[in-house]
Amino acid sequence: QQGLFTYDPGFVSTAACESKITFIDGTNGVLLHRGYPIEQLAQHSDYLETCYLLIHGELPSNEELGHFKSMVKNHTMVHEQLNHFFNGFRRDAHPMAIMCGVVGALSAFYHDTMDSTDEKHREIAAFRLIAKMPTLAAMCYKYSIGQPFMYPRNDLDYAANFLYMMFGTPCEEFVVNPILAKAMDKIFLLHADHEQNASTSTVRLAGSSGANVFACIASGIAALWGPAHGGANEAVLSMLMEIEDESRIPEFIERAKDKDDSFRLMGFGHRVYKNFDPRAKVMKESCDQVLQELGLEDDPLFKIARRLEQIALEDPYFVERKLYPNVDFYSGIILRAIGIPVSMFTVIFAMARTVGWYSHWNEMVSTDYRIGRPRQLYTGHTKRDYPG
Ligand code: SDX
């Protein structure tokens, strides 16, 4: 507001930040990672290759990718002491609450030996984070169902190893379905990074104070948990299950438009996209394919989702406000088809986004950065004296 406040040009410099990692054109529904369209990465790349691209800025050679993947495999186990950390939680604790705790606890293991000014140390932190998140996530699930933790298997690829740790048991041979592993890897890839979203901005701000990168990632997990952000994928499934029949869709569309009703159409709308979220398009295609391959094409929730999208995109309220499906709208249907419980949906998002959070932290600490200090427009009382 001009006049009432002196406008500090520094406001923009602390509020906005420069980055080379991801570009979003919200008007045209464009998402580029280091210049590569998300659609092409989803079609031709895999999660770990995309991790390398996000961190290093270029696609790896076969040799570089081989080394990257083997380094990730070398860090998949967590310190045995971390197992005890879980015992402090109730068995029914939300997995995101546990993830906030155990990922933050990683800083207790690496804080003293990590110098974030050293590029080699930062690279090892990347391997540790990318490698250990699936192990910790699967441990959250196993803890919640009272089954023993499964050690990672380094003969399996990244997504297959996660599914093995989630659903395998020591009692019998567990063979991962390659269709599910491929779908899981694509889910990870589509959630890897998304510019300066709320959780990434949280990680950057935490990192700007010089805090340990593991603690910064834990702050990103906390920010992601909200239903307006990463928690939306869990909320979408709960909404579809509440709708339960296509005949009830109009009732929920009207509720979403009612300002006196706090209900929002979960998985719709976006702070930046005022067009289709390109990830939602890829996710929908992947949904179709996975359900077909699994013989679940008549999945009732997927039918409700497709009908809901169709109705919403024809409704003036949504059209006028440019509300389109976002990344969370279809992801939950695929996760459910893979067998992931709804309570773990946001944990999957956090696992995948860890490389994005790390990449932005690494980009910032690799430069001559300053502590972030968002400015405010003060609208409170002017100076006044204490009565008496
Ligand atoms: C993610 O930032 C990122 O990049 C995030 C993310 C990432 O990869 O990191 O993309 C991941 O968080 C995706 C978003 C997931 N959240 C949801 O699906 C929750 C449902 N969506 C809404 O809560 C909402 O759309 C937000 C939070 C996503 C955006 O909120 P805004 O910025 O307030 O939305 P807006 O300014 O575009 O709203 C314009 C109008 C408003 O109504 P009016 O004041 O004009 O009358 O549209 C309404 C809003 O009330 N509106 C909705 C709605 N979303 C916005 N109405 C009904 N249902 C919705 N989903």
From TrEMBL:
InterPro entries: Citrate_synth-like_lrg_a-sub, Citrate_synth-like_sm_a-sub, Citrate_synthase, Citrate_synthase_AS, Citrate_synthase_bac-typ, Citrate_synthase_sf, Citrate_synthase_typ-I
Family matches, as Pfam families: Citrate_synt (PF00285)
Metabolic or biological pathway, per its Swiss-Prot or TrEMBL entry: Carbohydrate metabolism; tricarboxylic acid cycle; isocitrate from oxaloacetate: step 1/2
Catalysed reactions, semicolon-separated: oxaloacetate + acetyl-CoA + H2O = citrate + CoA + H(+)
Source organism, top-level taxon: Bacteria
Keywords on record: Transferase, Tricarboxylic acid cycle
Family: Belongs to the citrate synthase family.
Xref: PANTHER family: CITRATE SYNTHASE (PTHR42871:SF1)
This protein's name: Citrate synthase
Source organism (scientific name): Allohahella marinimesophila
Taxon lineage: Bacteria, Pseudomonadati, Pseudomonadota, Gammaproteobacteria, Oceanospirillales
Gene: gltA
